[in-house]
Amino acid sequence: MSSADLTSKYIQIQGVEQTFKTAKGPFVALQNIDLTIAKGEFVTMIGHSGCGKSTLLNLIAGLTKPTRGTLICANREIAGPGPDRGVVFQNHSLLPWLTCFENVYLAVERVFGQTRDAGIPAESRAQLRERTEAALAMVGLSHAAQKRPGEISGGMKQRVGIARALSMEPNVLLLDEPFGALDALTRAKLQDELLQIVANTRSTVVMVTHDVDEAVLLSDRIVMMTNGPAATIGEVLAVDLPRPRDRIELAENTDYVHYRKAVIDFLYTRQAHVERQAA
Ligand SMILES: Nc1ncnc2c1ncn2[C@@H]1O[C@H](COP(=O)(O)OP(=O)(O)OP(=O)(O)O)[C@@H](O)[C@H]1O
């Protein structure tokens, strides 16, 4: 593959199906998923609850394997989790007995504290500490480095989760509703921070969200998924708004309003969620 191809086809999802075994028999969660993501692209996945967004993100993370089809990242089949793909979940998943610093340090040590591919030597403890401090600084949490998760707010915990993922310098950042449990103001602040961080690191981002405004504000493309079972990609919307994006200016931007309406139409007209009657 040429380097131009590698850039434009950084993540390739081809003919993916995910079926789960359940007590009532096989359940097809995802079907016929085809998607190509370019290096440095910010892609969000949106769809009604239970349509399979997390299932797809877990497949890209390598936490699960597809029943059918292939997933490729940087020209290699995704065979399991790897430090090239950092994951942030909604419930932050920090170790409660460690400080914020230690939570991030653990991840840094795992990646940079040992000999890496191509014989790159392990870094010194001073270098690992420096990386940890830089990651916490990036999310504005230097002052809370010595606190434990129980002593900080939900928004701060999410920030530590993001710092931990970023500290590993992943090529791909996978975010599963990272701001879902936060109040609107904290959420807006973290969205702005994320935009800034991604602009600096040029990471490729795949993010699951329920929030239409969040999707339009952050994305280069929005992947809109149909309802399950056997959910698939219904439509992909390219969001052609210039960056850096400013939420206040965008609120009155006619293109922004148009993109927002396109997503709302998809979700609430074409994919109006029908609650299935219990059998
Ligand atoms: N391990 C599993 N075993 C059986 N069914 C599963 C499993 N994981 C997910 N599912 C089912 O697959 C479907 C998709 O789930 P998934 O969590 O990916 O949806 P989602 O779009 O992320 O939902 P939400 O927006 O509510 O988080 C759901 O019907 C869910 O019940």
UniProtKB/TrEMBL annotation:
Its main location: membrane. GO terms for cellular component: plasma membrane. Residues 11-252 form the ABC transporter domain. Keywords: ATP-binding, Cell membrane, Membrane, Nucleotide-binding, Transport. Pfam families: ABC_tran. It comes from Caenimonas koreensis DSM 17982. It is a peripheral membrane protein. InterPro entries: AAA+_ATPase, ABC_transporter-like_ATP-bd, ABC_transporter-like_CS, ABC_transporter_ATP-bind, NO3_transporter_ATP-bd-like, P-loop_NTPase. GO terms for molecular function: ATP binding; ATP hydrolysis activity; nitrate transmembrane transporter activity. The keyword Oxidoreductase does not apply. SMART domains: AAA (SM00382). It is found in: Cell membrane. This is ATP-binding cassette domain-containing protein. Belongs to the ABC transporter superfamily. The keyword Nucleotide-binding applies.
